[in-house]
Amino acid sequence: MKAQAILRPLTERDRPVWQSLWDGYCAFYKVRLPAPVIDGLWEKLTGGDPAIHGMLAESAETGEALGLMHYVLHPHTWSLKTVCYLEDLFVTEAARGQGVGRALIEWLAARGRDEGWFRLYWHTDENNETARLLYDRVAGPATMVRYAIPLTK
C-alpha cells in the first residue's frame, strides 16, 4: 500500500515533529549528537544557512509525520552549476515501503532539474539494505566508494 504524502519545507513551528523524526534517524544510525549541534542544525534548516534545507513528508489523510529530508546545495569543481547533496533521509518504520522515501528523492530530483543543478548525490551505510534497495531502483547501483577522515575528537 502506498502512502499519500504531502511534501513541504520545514517551518519553525515544525520543531517538535522534526525533533521526533531526527531522534529516530539518529537512533537508526546509533548516533548521539550534543544538544548544541541539534539546535544549530535546526537553526540552519529554518533559515540560518541558505545552503541547507529541510523537507517534511506528512500523511495526506492524517497529517502524521512520515519522514524528513535534509539537503545541501554547493558548488562543484567539474561544473559551473549547483550540486545537491542529499545528506539525511529518514522515513518512519511504519511508513517504510510505501513510497515516501522515493517521493522525497523524486521531489528533490525534479527541483534540481527545474533549477538546472549538475548532480544530486547521497551516501548510505553499506548495511542499510532496505534503503539501498530503493536507492538502486531510483539511481542505479553506486559506482563510487566513500572515504572519510574524522577531523574532530
What average pLDDT do the residues reach?
93
Report the biggest beta sheet as strand number plus sense, adding barrel if it closes.
Answer: 5 strands, mixed
> So, the CATH homologous superfamily?
Gcn5-related N-acetyltransferase (GNAT)
CATH architecture, by name, is: 3-Layer(aba) Sandwich
The helix tally amounts to 4
In the CATH hierarchy, the third-tier topology is known as Aminopeptidase
Estimate percent helicity. 25-40%
- The number of domains is 1
**Helix/strand class:** alpha+beta
* The first-level CATH class name: Alpha Beta
Count the beta strands: 5
Order of helical and strand elements:
EHHEEEHEH
Strand line-up of the largest beta sheet: 1-2-3-4-5
Report Rg: 16 Å
Strand content: 25-35%
Set out the fold topology.
Layout: E1 5-9, H1 15-28, H2 35-48, E2 52-59, E3 65-76, E4 79-91, H3 100-115, E5 119-122, H4 129-139
Parallel strand pairs: 4-5
Antiparallel strand pairs: 1-2, 2-3, 3-4
Protein name: Ribosomal protein S18 acetylase RimI-like enzyme
Domain N-acetyltransferase: 5-153
Keywords: Acyltransferase, Ribonucleoprotein, Ribosomal protein, Transferase
Q: Mind explaining what this structure looks like?
A:
This protein is of the alpha+beta class and 153 residues long. The protein has a single domain, classed as Gcn5-related N-acetyltransferase (GNAT) (Aminopeptidase, 3-Layer(aba) Sandwich). Helices cover 36% and strands 27% of the residues. The protein is built from four helices and five strands; from the N terminus they run βααβββαβα. It has helices spanning 15-28, 35-48, 100-115, 129-139; strands spanning 5-9, 52-59, 65-76, 79-91, 119-122. It has a five-stranded mixed β-sheet, sandwiched between helices. The mean pLDDT is 93.
